[in-house]
């Protein structure tokens, strides 16, 4: 499924699968977007696969080093909606070829303190 996609969005819950997804991207893939959620914060990484994989892999770490956070945490529902809003904006920008959105990006949002 990934091989023929123009935009690949990784919304998985472990690092090993994230690596498998980006490695399956091809020259056709315009953008790889990785969403990561942590309790009251989230991160979105947006890269052009093939050309920028080495930059993306700097953000990668083994699953054993991840902090375990229960998905049933009360903060997770609004955090998920916030990720969805940012992600939708990024995809719309890619589809419209907006220069600012097309640049490589790393976004971290702290919902506890409302910091970006």
Characterization of the model:
This protein has one domain. It is 34% helix and 22% strand. The chain contains four helices and four strands. The protein has helices spanning 15-24, 53-57, 76-95, 99-102, and strands at residues 7-10, 31-38, 41-47, 105-110. Strand 2 and strand 3 (41-47) form a beta hairpin. The chain is globular and about 35 Å long. The termini are far apart. The mean pLDDT is 83.
What fraction, in percent, of the residue positions are helical?
25-40%
Number of domains: 1
Low-pLDDT regions: none
- Could you say which overall geometry the principal axes of the C-alpha atoms support? globular
Helix count equals 4
Mean pLDDT: 83
- Order of strands, widest sheet: 1-2-3-4
**Helix and strand string, N-terminal first?**
EHEEHHHE
By secondary-structure content and strand pairing, the structural class works out as alpha+beta
State the distance separating the first and last CA atoms: 32 Å
Number of strands: 4
Radius of gyration: 14 Å
What characterizes the major β-sheet?
Answer: 4 strands, mixed
Strand content: 15-25%
Please give a handful of descriptors for the protein shown.
four-stranded mixed β-sheet, 4 helices, globular, about 120 residues
Topology summary:
Elements: E1 7-10, H1 15-24, E2 31-38, E3 41-47, H2 53-57, H3 76-95, H4 99-102, E4 105-110
Parallel strand pairs: 1-2
Antiparallel strand pairs: 2-3, 3-4
């Amino acid at each position: 499924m990934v091989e023929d996609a123009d935009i690949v969005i990784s919304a998985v819950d472990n690092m090993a699968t994230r690596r498998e997804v980006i490695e399956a991207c091809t020259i056709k893939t315009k953008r790889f977007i990785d969403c990561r959620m942590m309790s009251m914060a989230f991160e979105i990484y947006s890269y052009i696969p093939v050309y920028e994989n080495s930059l993306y892999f700097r953000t990668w770490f083994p699953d054993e080093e991840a902090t375990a956070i229960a998905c049933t945490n009360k903060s997770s529902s609004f955090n998920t909606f916030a990720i969805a809003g940012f992600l939708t904006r990024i995809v719309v920008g890619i589809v419209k070829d907006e220069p600012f959105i097309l640049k490589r990006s790393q976004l971290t949002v702290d919902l506890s303190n409302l910091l970006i």
